[in-house]
Amino acid sequence: LVVVWHGVGFYLVLFSAAMQSIPRDIYEAALIDGAGRAQSFFRITLPLLWDSVQTAWVYLGIAAMDMFILVSTMTSGEFGGGPDHASEVMSTVMMRNFLYYGKSGYACAMGVVMLLLTLILSVVMLRATRRERVEF
Q: Which residue in 59, 21, 50 sits closest to 130, CA to CA?
């Protein structure tokens, strides 16, 4: 729930700006042609918002990789993780290794792996959600 509430504002602004860029003429033409609300959404709105949907998927993937702030704030202990480190994420392990155990090389290697995983995840998400571009 906290993660959803944390991201609602950003995605609200992202999608509301994209929705405002769609001309009303297209919806009026669809209404005259007899399209219902569901058809208008799936055949007009979603294809024209697809670039924003791709961007949202990439941002969600990046946010999923780095939940350090939420985990460390909401759980107690050394950089969070809850009881017996049950809610730990990779970035909390990295910070604990760096600050408490003094393993700076290991922590830097974890940071590089996190960067590579984020880049790979972003490329995979962009390729998986790639469609033919619809312009108006």
A: 50
Q: How far apart are CA 96 and CA 79, in angstroms?
A: 7
pLDDT digits (tens, 9 = 90+) for 62-71: 887 778 777 7
CATH topology of domain 2-128: MetI-like fold (1.10.3720)
Q: Residue 97, Cβ neighbours under 10 Å: how many? A: 19
Task: Collect all residues with Cβ–Cβ distance below 8 Å to 95 and sequence separation of at least 6.
Answer: 68, 72, 79, 107
For 27-41, the pLDDT digits (tens) are 999 999 999 999 999
Name the token pair of 113.
């792996």
Rg (CA), the chain: 21
122 contacts: CB under 8 Å, gap ≥ 6: 58, 61, 62
* Predicted TM-score (pTM) above 0.85: no
